[in-house]
Each structure stands twice: as structure tokens, then as C-alpha cells.
Fold:
Amino acid sequence: MLAIAAILIGGTVPAAIIPQADDTVYIATAAPEPAPQAGSGNSDDDIQTFASPATSAAAPVVRDTFDVERVQQQVIITAAGPTGSLDVFPANGPINDGFGYRDGGEFHGGIDVMAAEGSAIVAASAGTVESVTYGGGWGRHVIIDHGGGVKTLYAHMIEGSTGVAVGQWVSAGDFLGLVGTTGYSTFPHLHFEVYVFESRVDPMPWLP
Structure:
């Protein structure tokens, strides 16, 4: 009798009454169907997900390290104000070549200050001397870490003219070396660069 009742009820409700030998009645309900599977259509890289109603409408988060870096730079430049965050000009002379791509397609990563040969190069702002070395086309050069992700580079110094050492703290205007033409240079000048989070940026907005 119980078996007949189970057949009749099973045709009208989404559950089955299953009698057991000990006369205990168990009710078996249908398992919920999983949410549709999400993937690219390629069986090698499909990702199966079972989304709950609370999260199914949420868009995936995509992070791009280049965009993050640009946002960080923008925040610092905005906070620095229109005159930049560096305190003094690193050498005394006009600017001959700016930041960006030249006519021949070559990228110029800084500015060239046409200071007289043998004139002083000074720290644009306070910081710690990170490097005093020769190479990279810059010839004899100095790098200063100003903190907050900001660094400055001073290139083409006269060999033997540097007046600072690695790890030394310098203040704005402190002597670093003399303008020369070492490295990839055809005439005496200071090649000056600004780095923000290890990426070169145009130095002009940073200088007073």
C-alpha cells in the first residue's frame, strides 16, 4: 500500500516517500541544480564556478600593474603641486633637450642642462645617495633616493669629480660632482632624470 502511495504522490510533488524495512518513512528531495559554468569555451582553460545569488552579479576584478603604477605617479604629482616636489635646479644652465621621443624615434629619458664644463652639479632635494658609478651610457653618474618612490639621476660628470659616497645623506643644494661629458655624450652637459616607482617621468613638473 505504501509503495502505491509513493507512486501516486511522486507524480504530483517534487519529492519521493521511500518506505524502509523498519516502517520508517524517509523523504528524498531533488538536489538543486548548479549554476551555469563560466569559461572561455576552450576545454583546456575553462574555469567552473558555482555562483551564489549574492555574488553572481559581481563583475570580475582585473588588475593591471601598469595602470596602478600610473595612478600612483598621478597621486604624487598632484600632491606636489604645480612647482614640483624637488627643491632646487640641479645645475646652472638652459635646457637643450627635453623628455620624450626625439625626431629619430629615440626615447630621451630626462632633460639636458647646458651647464658649463666643470661647473657644479647639486642635489635637487634631500635624500640618500644610492649609487655612485660609471656606465649605462651615463658615464660617471650619481643616483639619489628621496623616499616615497622618488629618485633622481645626475649623469656625464667629470671622472674623479664626485663628492659623495653611497649611503651618504645629502641636503638640497649639496655638491655632487662637476659637469662633464663622460659616457654617451658629445659635449659637456648634465643629463638629469626623475624616477617615480622605478619609472622615468618628465623632470620638468618636479623642478622649481
Summary: Residues 1-83 have pLDDT under 50 and may be disordered. The chain has two domains: 1-35, 87-206.
